[in-house]
Amino acid sequence: MACFVYSAMALLTLHFLRPDYAPATNFISNYAVGRYGWVMTTWFLAMSCGLLMLAAGLYTHGLRSVVARLGIFLLIVAAIGLVVSAIFPTDIPGAPSTSSGAIHDKSFLVNVGSIFIATVLLSTGFGLHPAWRPYRRTAWLLTSLILVGFVVQFLTLHKGMPYGLANRFFVAVLFAWLFAVSFRLRATG
């Protein structure tokens, strides 16, 4: 939970540190470029650590069905992808394309896809485990919001669209899912 709290606070802080980045037309990854880029880099690393710890906690607390194991595996894939995102900053809009930006863009697709599929698989896995079964409705509600964010994020990936806001919505509902699962995990431990 501490990693996710830090990530949420760092991201909120970046909005104040970088008022020159309009939230509607800038992905959160753009904060990794420039004077306060290190804050965004630590965001990627904290999210990665949070996902790894969440995966370990879910596994050690008995989520061992095939579906849950696949979800846990995809959390680990996303954690690795977030480290890649931290190492290779994105290209900001209007700047020349770089190999670092290309790697970051590919890692973005892996991260978002892995996290989305992980939430679906884990929400299914919660229904297969007696201790987690009462939580599955909440998990599915939050997963449904992540699905909306996932779809909207990809539908707005065109110039002139508010893709930055869609990106922030996806991250906000993802945070809600991560915090809710973390609190539930702590309560079952």
Describe this structure in words.
The protein has 189 residues and is an all-alpha fold. The chain has one domain (2-10, 32-188). The protein has helices spanning 2-17, 37-60, 66-87, 99-127, 136-155, 163-188. Helix 3 packs antiparallel against helix 4 (99-127), helix 4 (99-127) runs antiparallel to helix 5 and helix 5 (136-155) packs antiparallel against helix 6. The radius of gyration is 16 Å and the shape is elongated. The protein starts with a helix and ends with a helix. The model has no long low-confidence stretch (mean pLDDT 93).
List its traits.
about 0% strand, mainly alpha, about 190 residues
Q: How do the helices and strands follow one another from N- to C-terminus?
A: HHHHHH
- Number of separate helices: 6
Average pLDDT: 93
Largest sheet: none
CA-based shape: elongated
Helix content: over 70%
- Uncertain stretches of 5 or more adjacent residues: none
Q: What's the end-to-end separation, in Å?
A: 14 Å
In short:
By secondary structure, this protein is an all-alpha fold. The protein has helices at residues 2-17, 37-60, 66-87, 99-127, 136-155, 163-188.
